[in-house]
Design brief:
Elements: H1 2-21, H2 30-41, H3 44-58, H4 72-86, H5 90-107
Helix pairs in contact: 1-2, 1-4, 2-3, 2-4, 3-4, 3-5, 4-5
């Protein structure tokens, strides 16, 4: 169980890193992270379904300035993990994903925790 958690965390970190240190291939989107986490945890089909559903929800999420929204990638990784490890349905996983993405975003580099791009007077 702990190994699976580390593998999911590493996959999420590696996909998130591509937005900063590689050409932005959008690997931290739910449409990619959902199936990847599903593959790691052994249920690729459920990962694809949840990832596609969450991509539809988060399709319009754009981080403008210091405005924050739920982190789509973290929401997908956590929702797919919860669904596979706890035998949740797709609807229950989607219900878990949206609220869990907000606290993750606050400490994430996209969200309010990122002070590198803000002017000191902001």
């Amino acid at each position: 169980m702990l190994l699976k958690a580390f593998l999911v965390a590493f996959a999420m970190w590696a996909c998130h890193l591509t937005g900063y240190h590689a050409p932005n291939m959008m690997l931290d989107r739910p449409i990619f992270l959902g199936p990847l986490v599903g593959l790691i945890l052994g249920n690729f089909e459920l990962g694809c379904i949840i990832g596609a559903q969450l991509e539809l929800i988060f399709m319009g999420v754009v981080f403008v300035g210091s405005a924050t929204s739920a982190d789509p990638g973290a929401s997908a990784a956590i929702a797919v993990s919860f669904a596979i490890l706890n035998n949740l349905s797709v609807n229950e996983a989607i219900a878990v994903a949206t609220p869990i993405g907000y606290p993750v975003c606050l400490g994430n580099c996209h969200g309010a925790g990122d002070r590198r791009n803000l002017h000191p007077d902001d």
